[in-house]
Specification:
Blueprint: E1 5-10, E2 17-20, E3 27-31, E4 38-42
Antiparallel strand pairs: 1-2, 2-3, 3-4
Length: 64
């Protein structure tokens, strides 16, 4: 028996519903009960924005 939350996306193989059957906070697991499609991804934190290499404002020239 497959149980889980209904995912926002549809199955890429058959267009049916995808269920989020994840049981861990480290992996996202999606399954389609219609055709058996299965996919999983390792969950990562979003990358922080890179530091601003140009502290001068827009249109300002930096002294080099």
């Amino acid at each position: 028996m497959i149980s889980g939350w209904l995912a926002e996306d549809d199955c890429p193989d058959c267009g049916g519903p995808l269920l989020d059957t994840s049981t861990s906070s480290r992996y996202l697991v999606l399954d389609c009960p219609g055709c058996g499609y299965h996919a999983s991804w390792h969950i990562t934190s979003p990358e922080p924005d890179p530091p601003d290499d140009n502290p001068a404002g827009p249109g300002d020239a930096e002294d080099l």
